[in-house]
Amino acid sequence: MKRLFGILALLAFVAFTSCTEDIVIDVEEGDPMIGVDASFTDELKRHEAILSYTSEFYNQDEIHMVSGATVYVTDGVDTAYYYEDAELKGHYFTDSVAGNKNTLYRLCIEIPEADGTKQQVFAESLIPDNVERIDSIVVKHFNGMNDTVPSVFFMDTIEWLYPYFQSLPDPNIIYMPMVSKNDTLLTDSLKMRMMIAQGGFAGYYVNGQEMLQNNKEIPIGYFRRSQLKDGDRIHADLFSVTPEYYYFFYSLLMSTGSNPMLGAPANVSTNIQPEGKGVGWFFTASVVSSETVFRK
Length: 296
What we know:
It is a single chain. Helix content is 14%, strand content 38%. By secondary structure, the chain is mostly beta strands. The chain has two domains: 34-130 and 244-286, Immunoglobulin-like; 136-241 and 288-293, no CATH class. Strands 1, 2, 3, 4, 5, 6, 7, 10, 11, 12, 15 and 16 form a twelve-stranded mixed beta sheet that branches. Strand 1 (34-41) and strand 2 (45-53) form a beta hairpin. The longest helix has 17 residues, at 2-18.
């Protein structure tokens, strides 16, 4: 029996130590494209566009930013220009300006080439309608069995953040909450964000009595109890986004990671045109906000 165990252990050791050769996937490369990460909302602020060039899959060199471009957004009547930051190459900002709900915007980018020509890419996106306001946000325990899983995972009590607002009747409106604590954004990574697709609950008062007759409460964020202090300011922004951005977000989320074998077997969607010339997304949204103070 001891000999059998020794053979099995040896086989296991061989199995785990013999497959150490790196597998290099032959990835077909094309011409560099323009990477676009641009936004324009109905908030009165400076909006940003970040432009870069794509690189080969295995290239570990520094990202090459796009400098000297002409960047602007227009609704066909009014136009707002993005100006390149003097210290942040490839980062472009508008003056303080706000877009309008239910308005289609076109982002235009012109990049001068060495031969005197210009490379042009563009994108169109709608600022959708949004709720009038968030009536309140409340930090409290999760009202359901699912509270057990994160509490055990974090070895801590979890406090959840719940919004209360009248949702729009349009089932195509997607809500994306962004949560901050004491002016520090907690949903700054893809994995920390969530989307609320109302579907059949469109038009209901979110987390109201009528909705709770057929559904559990919907949180928009959570906190570890040990990291909450009396007097902490909790701020929530509720973005209304298009279904197209919803699909882009989840395709990007599923394709993000260091292991290409674990990603989704498809290219991430983009609204940058012409096709094959650009990647990324021109993001538009309407935003409403609410704030509360945590009390123990």
